[in-house]
Amino acid sequence: MLKAIIVDDEAKARRILESFLVDxxxxxxxxxxxxxxxxxxxxxxxxxxxxxxLDIEMPGYNGFQLLEFFEEIDFEIIFTTAYSxxxxxxxxxxxxxxxxxxxxxxxxxAAVQKxxxxxxxxxxxxxxxxxxxxxxxxxIKKIVVPLSEGSLxxxxxxxxxLKADGSYCNMFFTDGNKVLVSKTVKDFxxxxxxxxxFFRIHRSYLINSSYVTNFATEYYDVTLVNEVTLNVxxxxxxxxxxxxxxxxxxx
Length: 251
Hints:
Layout: E1 2-7, H1 11-24, E2 28-34, H2 37-47, E3 51-55, E4 76-81, H3 85-93, E5 98-100, H4 105-118, H5 124-136, E6 142-146, E7 151-155, E8 159-165, E9 168-173, E10 178-181, H6 185-191, E11 198-202, E12 205-208, E13 212-216, E14 221-224, E15 229-231, H7 237-244
């Protein structure tokens, strides 16, 4: 059984989430409903929950400021939010769960199931710091990368390219290292877009265009700063050529 606390300044929102949890998440035991951060802090200290469902926008303190009251965060957080599209992307790349208002039951049950799997080994503080960094600067600078054992916190500027490996992929870094990641290239393509400097040049390759030193149009090959040459697939050549017209080559 997972003990939970709901934090939201809107009474109706608290009641709806409580009702959904009772009806669809029997593995969750609701310990308290709180309307602000000071009350939530007291409830967390008293009940020691496994999950805190935390609204972000509240008067007085916002949801992120809850973390300032704890030296150690030994509970998982699922944010409830009506944030913008960019903010939702920041949540995704930071591996932080969120429920978009109005809350959908399938998203709620999926988030709870995920907590059950990772609870006790979630690196929650590091993931939250990654999220806050991305939100504060309104640009994706860092992502959380899932490995077979644990997670890796990666700066986008350190990624050179990704290469497909079945249901996994290899992530190559500018320092010459690489790791096997428990996600597909397609998963990363959905997160790392041309706006962040990344481009899917082939079904097997997603590159950081900041490190392209040469694009040979006669062979449709891309050369990166580590002198690795990768092929641009036929169906992506025109789009990539258009994209690179506005991108400076790396020196």
